[in-house]
Amino acid sequence: MLTKSLTLTEQVARQIAGDIAHGVYPVGAKLPSGRVLAEQYGVSAAVIREVTERLRAQGLVQSRQGSGSVVLARTGAQGFQVPADIAVSREQLASVYELRMELEGGAAALAAERRNAADLEAMARALADLEHHQHHPEHGVEHDIAFHLAIAAATHNPFYQDLLQYLNLQLRLAVSTARANSRQLAGMTDAVHHEHVAVFEAIRDHDAPRARRMAERHLRQAASRLRLDSLFPASRQTS
């Protein structure tokens, strides 16, 4: 039975991880399709996508587009993980946003140096979808995350892609909250979109220093919209 103390994603992920640990899904076996899992647990396809990403981040499964998810191990890796309750701890959330500023600033700079036409097309597509949904933040979260992941992909460094994908998916609730807060302030949704465009234009122009600055500024502003900026060290607050 699903309870209200954990998010649906966390509950389903724990149940599937438990099934993997107990051999219900042995190593080398494929998990049921997303549609089957969604019906089995009574959740949406979006929740199952988040569950799959969480299991992948834990090293339990490997996902390949068009071929489903295959079990890699019975127990997850004990490496770096964001706490499951990150969205309710302002101090932890501020720390993760500070980490994102450094990581995504670096990713944007690398993307400016390495991006190709396909990378720019993926970013532009995500931006267009974001603009279309900018006044409906509950629909725009996926496109917001897609834009950041397109930047990570443009680094052509798989470790950047994996780590930033993990962080963005774990912070999905925070992204949703930030966009909802922006919607409540007149003109703020336009400002958020312009922040994204500024990052894109710097990457498009091969301007690595500007891409880094624009990415860091966007995330600093996102943290401010979540009222986290007061929790940063003095140097970060005034930068």
Automatic annotation (TrEMBL):
CDD domains: WHTH_GntR. This is Pyruvate dehydrogenase complex repressor. Transmembrane segments: none annotated. One of its GO terms (molecular function) is DNA binding. It comes from Achromobacter dolens. Keywords: DNA-binding, Repressor, Transcription, Transcription regulation. The keyword Manganese does not apply. The keyword Cell membrane does not apply. Transcriptional repressor for the pyruvate dehydrogenase complex genes aceEF and lpd. Residues 6-74 form the HTH gntR-type domain.
